[in-house]
């Protein structure tokens, strides 16, 4: 279904974007996110922006790397923009973790997600969108709500759990969501597997309770056929099809679900998925 990142996309672009480490103050300590600006970034222009979260135990550098190691995925995104296959965008790679969290603990990773939900609109987004040119005219609540159509959030595994929570609680700040290889845990943990119908209904209900409708968001969910997360995400997405008043799975609708044959619960597949999905969302120049 998805094309591979070929060799021509795996070499350094002639027009590479820049990745910098941006520090910001979270409620209890100083944290950082990695921020990607496309080649030719111009602060006088407005850019759409996507926040991408790593998986459990991961870090900010998982997607694009750092100065010592630029990932193949970062090179591929540079080429997509250079070739006009997608518009230039800003990409932000934060982390849910604080220094107190044990990244090897699933329980603490889950706790970290909830702490991150409290900092995203008060700490992270205001810092990013003050320093970089997004569509936000201001970084107070009114400004962030007004610019939600140009802001997306996605993540892998525990980052997808974060994405579903943001959909259920922070729809006023984001209009596009890319949950990769994890179901929503808003009814109970791993509820996509244990209670798919109830979870789907809960997801449909939170749209209206937040004051929005089916025209106000889009979801691009994806996993692999050999991914252990498929056992939760597949039944949940199927149940969401029965909530068609909110989730429209038709071509051109607001909800898409991709099941990649052979895909496993590994970052190399996540990067392949995003290589294909980002041009769908951000289109050609």
Spans of at least 5 consecutive residues with low confidence = none
Mean pLDDT across residues? 97
Distance between the termini: 23 Å
Q: What would the CATH topology be? A: Rossmann fold
Structural class by SSE content: alpha/beta
Spatial sequence of strands, sheet with the most strands: 1-2-6-3-7-8-9-10
CATH superfamily: Alpha/Beta hydrolase fold, catalytic domain
Main sheet record: 8 strands, mixed
The tally of helices reads 8
Proportion of residues in β-strands: 15-25%
Describe the structure.
With 285 residues, this protein is of the alpha/beta class. The protein has a single domain (7-209, 216-282), classed as Alpha/Beta hydrolase fold, catalytic domain (Rossmann fold). It has eight helices and ten strands. The strands form two sheets. It has an eight-stranded mixed β-sheet, with helices on both faces. The chain is globular, with a radius of gyration of 18 Å.
Write the layout of secondary structure elements.
Layout: E1 18-25, E2 30-37, E3 49-53, E4 65-66, E5 69-70, H1 72-82, E6 90-93, H2 106-131, H3 141-146, E7 151-156, H4 158-169, E8 176-180, H5 191-194, H6 196-209, E9 218-224, H7 230-240, E10 255-260, H8 267-282
Parallel strand pairs: 3-6, 3-7, 7-8, 8-9, 9-10
Antiparallel strand pairs: 1-2, 2-6, 4-5
């Amino acid at each position: 279904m998805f094309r591979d990142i070929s060799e021509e996309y795996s070499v350094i672009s002639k027009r590479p974007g820049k990745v910098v480490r941006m520090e910001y103050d979270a409620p209890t300590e100083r944290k950082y996110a990695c921020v990607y600006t496309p080649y030719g970034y111009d602060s006088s222009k407005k850019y759409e922006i996507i926040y991408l979260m790593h998986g459990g135990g991961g870090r900010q550098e998982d997607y694009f790397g750092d100065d010592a190691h630029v990932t193949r995925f970062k090179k591929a995104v540079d080429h997509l923009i250079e070739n006009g296959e997608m518009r230039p965008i800003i990409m932000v790679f934060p982390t849910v973790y604080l220094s107190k969290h044990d990244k090897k603990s699933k329980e603490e990773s889950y706790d970290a997600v909830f702490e991150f939900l409290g900092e995203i609109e008060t700490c992270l987004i205001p810092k990013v969108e003050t320093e970089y040119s997004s569509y936000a005219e201001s970084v107070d609540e009114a400004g962030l709500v007004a610019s939600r159509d140009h802001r997306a959030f996605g993540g892998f595994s525990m980052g997808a759990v974060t994405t579903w929570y943001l959909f259920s609680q922070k729809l006023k700040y984001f209009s596009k969501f890319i949950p990769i290889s994890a179901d929503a845990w808003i009814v109970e943990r791993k509820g996509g597997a244990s209670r798919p119908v109830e979870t789907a209904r809960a997801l449909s209900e939170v749209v209206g309770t937040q004051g929005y409708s089916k025209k106000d968001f889009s979801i691009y969910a994806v996993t692999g056929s050999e991914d252990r997360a498929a056992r939760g995400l597949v039944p949940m997405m199927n149940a969401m099809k029965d909530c068609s008043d909110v989730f429209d799975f038709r071509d051109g609708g607001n909800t898409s679900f991709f099941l990649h044959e052979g895909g496993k619960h590994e970052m190399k597949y996540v990067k392949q998925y995003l290589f294909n999905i980002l041009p769908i969302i951000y289109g050609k120049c």
